[in-house]
Write a structure and sequence with these properties.
- This protein is mostly helical and about 425 residues long.
- The chain has 2 domains: about 140 residues, no CATH class; about 220 residues, MetI-like (MetI-like fold, Orthogonal Bundle).
- It is about 65% helix and about 5% strand.
- The chain is built from 18 helices and 3 strands.
- A 3-stranded antiparallel beta sheet has the order 2-1-3.
- The termini are far apart.
Amino acid sequence: MALEPATSADTLDRVRAGLRARYRRERRFRMFGAVSAIVGLLFVLMLFVSIFGNGYTAFWQTQVRLDIYFDPEVLDPNATGDAQVIGKANFDKLVREALYGQFPDVSSRRERRDLKRLVSAGAGFKLREMVLQDPELVGQRLPLWLPADDEVDMLVKGYIDRDLPEASRRLKDRQIGWVDALIAKGLVERHFNAAFFTTGDSRDPEMAGIGGAIKGSFFMLLVTLILSFPLGVAAAVYLEEFAPKNLWVDLIEVNINNLAAVPSIVFGLLGLAVFINVFGLPRSAPIVGGLVLTLMTLPTVIIASRAAIKSVPPSVREAALGVGASAMQTVFHHVIPLAMPGMLTGAIIGMARALGESAPLLMIGMIAFIVEVPDTPLDPATALPVQIYLWADSPERAFVERTSAAIMVLLAFLLVMNGLAIWMRKKFERRW
């Protein structure tokens, strides 16, 4: 039986059916891509909402106003005026006496112990610093705002449920009553927590700050920038402009590319073995962290710098050589200035990566509990990512708040550095 030849109408129908099926597949693919992007954005949004919701209140600290009498009998009973004598005085007693003055009916030892817990244990240190800076305060009575205890801070911010049974919360009913009484008198307010940005770590959440971590990160990034940028640019210029094409150079290039993918903790182990165990540099010092981060950042800087140098057209080199410039003059007077925006962009991206690293810093001891704010790169310090790691392991609710706040500060620095890199690329990039 002979097959009838297909008509042009049947062929056209088959083509249209195939087109409709292809268009349906394309629409499904676009829909899946859009859904994936939306889901990803939703997860990122949830992350930012969670961090911001938990952390923004850390920028305000609950404080209690007390009339502090700098009693000479407590601070300097012999009227010596010696700073060492005053520095060893019992400043906590001044805080207790001021609290007892607000609640004269509290007389039992247990109640007084609960009452003094309304104010931070670090309030005495604050008074000590004030008197050591101005010894004329001895004998005066001043109304001062002192930091409240972290549990009182959480109560005022609404993180503690008052309706829970007393056994289920750390604040007792009478302590909540005393806080309400102080609030009714206008003696409890929330102030901007400037100490969060200027002080170091502390066991008391209300006294803990990221000032030491920020300064430690600054010193580390300074060391990293001073070492990694010149070395990275020099290596890129040599490999791209002067190095001969042979097996050894190819091996070096392969190793540089491989080092960019090495886990960061490996660089921490290298820093521990070389900089601390061999050269004897101080543990937990920003200079060691900067050296480790330099090793980690160098491959990124070299790769970005080589890409920037490659983007310079050969005609620039040929024109410079044609008017009598040497190879060195061509590179330093023409190629590097034109490639510098790309080099700086790569350096900033590498520095941003270094700022967010914590694993290599843990290996060189920067996980230590550091209270003092460092003054030099040789002083013990911690870094912002490590500080976040330490606080995240603390059980107090106030440390959860400060962990999220520190993450917000770190993200702000990273966004600024990446935004600066994008701005520099857009502003100085040249189209050839």
